[in-house]
Design a protein that fits this description.
Layout: E1 2-6, H1 21-42, E2 49-65, E3 68-69, E4 73-86, E5 89-95, H2 100-118, E6 133-138, H3 150-162, E7 170-188, E8 193-211, E9 214-219, E10 229-230, H4 234-238, H5 245-256, E11 264-270, H6 272-287, H7 289-292, E12 322-324, E13 347-351, E14 354-355, H8 362-370, E15 382-383, E16 392-393, E17 397-400, H9 407-412, E18 416-428, E19 434-446, E20 449-454, E21 458-462, H10 463-468, E22 470-473, E23 480-489, E24 494-502, E25 505-513
Parallel strand pairs: 1-6, 6-8, 11-18, 17-24
Antiparallel strand pairs: 2-3, 2-4, 2-7, 4-5, 7-8, 8-9, 8-10, 11-25, 12-13, 12-17, 13-14, 15-16, 18-19, 19-20, 19-21, 21-25, 22-25, 23-24
Helix pairs in contact: 1-2
């Protein structure tokens, strides 16, 4: 039995100490304290395997808009997912009642669903028998979330928001922060026991400017929270939250006075806060193995990637190296085990432009091998968004590895091009192939120098063709850790946290165009 421990956490639930929420959160913790003993007491005999996953999440969101503090949003969510494998199929049943009777009922429902599914199963789930594991994980936290009360947090948000009021042309402004503490316990019939604890922080500053009939919005790292990290309140310092309002506001004003982005084929230099979205949509989703196997066609679409492409398909230029790495400290989707209990490790998905392996968990990999894809191995990437959802193949930390070019060198080699920052819109077809993305901010590059700022920049392309046009990859000096709290997928829907890290990257011959104000 393998055992792994990472970063013991001194205080698992620092958010759980205020007001009426204290009792609810501590009730959730008590549930996890008794979950293993209760599960082993009421679990049915005669099944191939069972797993119980308990989750407690304590979340807080604060917003100050136009210097007015909005009502805080606070939630504590706790419950259990039971999985039973019997007769070649697996059934899942969720419950918020973690008592002995509640767990017994969930086991009974999961077993009935497994038996019902077995009559229609195209794959023998009983063949999926991962080795037993024991271990733990906890986010490294320098300043625990419980060290700041609501008053001090609102003061910080008010100060950050006020710094965006640099001019009468700023017509809307806000600062916000979302934080969550999550604890998860997985126990299984084979003796596995995995305890993981996460602390997530997502800050954001947004300013909108209006000038001579033109309105433009600029944000600190994306209106959909591209800057997000694991950690405590030190994440605010990493985001330059206290001082970034003035920059955001001045750039919004600059955009309102800027000309529209020109159209045409030109070089495109993407900064990390747009590379995040490019990686997410045109590498992450196409490589999800359950999507390739057809599981998502009814809702989120399929993929242009097929099983026979792995090991030989040229996904990008020789400069493209992509890794799946849940072990990176501080990135938004770091963990020690996925929700199937697979130990996390760094995996290379694309090496020197060649596609090597998909984003699929152990069960999906076995399904693919049953279809003849012998070269496919699973990675630790099967996750659920909460206790009331079954795990599915998800992106975790999906990163483009740094190259050897400085930002100045990449700018210097461009005769005509545009540097784009910060995603604000995206559209991609159901096969995650043809795409069209928009950014908040852009600067033209002319004869190797940065030139005028332009507004409403957009670009479009085809995933593989686009990545094959990769002409330079930034070194570690432009490398940034980003992410998103809002990756949606699955039926029923699951919205999950994902991390993406990348340097600035230069692409050639891209179709760039502007848009209406």
């Amino acid at each position: 039995m393998r055992e792994r421990r990472i970063d013991p956490h001194p205080d698992p639930f620092p958010l759980a100490g205020e007001g009426a929420m204290r009792g609810a959160s501590y009730t959730g913790l008590a549930m996890l304290d008794t979950l293993e003993a209760l599960a082993r007491r009421v679990a049915p005999d005669g099944v191939d395997r069972w797993t119980v996953r308990g989750v407690v999440e304590d979340a807080l969101q604060l917003v100050v808009r136009q210097d007015v503090a909005q009502s805080p949003a606070r939630s504590v969510d706790a419950g259990v997912m039971v999985a039973v494998t019997e007769s070649a199929a697996t059934g899942h049943a969720a419950t918020s009642d973690a008592s002995e009777s509640g767990l017994a009922d969930a086991f009974a429902r999961a077993r009935r669903l497994a038996r019902a599914a077995a009559r229609h199963s195209v794959y023998d789930a009983s063949c999926h028998a991962p080795p037993p594991v024991r271990g733990s994980y906890a986010t490294r936290v320098q300043q625990p979330l419980g060290t700041l009360g609501l008053r001090e947090l609102y003061e910080r948000l008010t100060e950050a928001s006020a710094k965006t009021r640099v001019d009468a042309r700023i017509v809307d402004w806000s600062a916000s922060v979302a934080a969550a503490e999550t604890r998860q316990l997985i126990v299984a019939s084979d003796g596995s026991r995995i305890e993981q604890r996460w602390s997530h922080v997502t800050p954001s500053i947004v300013a909108t400017a209006h000038d001579h009939g033109v309105t433009q919005t600029r944000s600190s790292a994306g209106q959909y929270n591209g800057f997000c990290r694991q950690g405590g309140w030190e994440v605010l310092d990493a985001a330059r939250f206290a001082d970034d309002g003035a920059r955001v506001a001045h750039e919004a004003i600059e955009l309102a006075a800027a000309p529209p982005c020109p159209a045409g084929a030109m070089d495109l230099l993407l900064m990390p806060d747009q590379m995040m979205l490019q990686i997410h949509e045109s590498i992450g989703h196409p490589l999800e193995l359950d999507r390739i196997l057809g599981d998502e066609r009814n809702f989120a679409g399929d993929s242009f990637v097929r099983l026979d492409m792995f090991g030989s398909y040229r996904y990008g230029s020789e400069l493209l190296n992509v890794t799946h790495d849940p072990t990176l400290n501080g990135e938004f989707a770091s963990f020690a085990f996925d929700d199937e209990g697979t130990p996390a490790r760094r995996e290379v998905l694309i090496r020197e432009g060649v596609l090597l392996r998909p984003l699929g968990g152990a069960l999906s990999a076995e399904r693919a091998r049953a279809l003849g894809a012998t070269a496919i191995d699973g990675v630790a990437t099967t996750r659920a968004c909460s206790w009331n959802r079954a795990p599915i193949d998800r992106m975790s930390n999906l990163n483009v590895e740094p190259g050897d070019s400085t930002l100045a060198q990449m700018i210097g080699r461009v005769e005509l091009g545009v540097l784009m920052r910060t995603n604000c819109s995206w559209s991609i077809d159901q096969s995650r192939n043809k795409f069209q993305f928009g950014c908040e901010h852009a600067t033209m590059i002319r004869n190797g120098r940065l030139a005028e700022v332009v507004r409403n920049p957009n670009y479009r392309g085809v995933s593989a063709t686009f990545w094959r046009s990769l002409a330079a990859v930034g070194d570690t000096s432009s490398f940034e850790v980003m992410g998103t709290p809002f990756c949606g997928k699955g039926e029923p829907s699951q919205v999950i946290r994902v991390g993406h890290a990348a340097p600035a990257c230069l692409f050639t011959g891209v179709d760039v165009f502007g848009a209406a104000s």
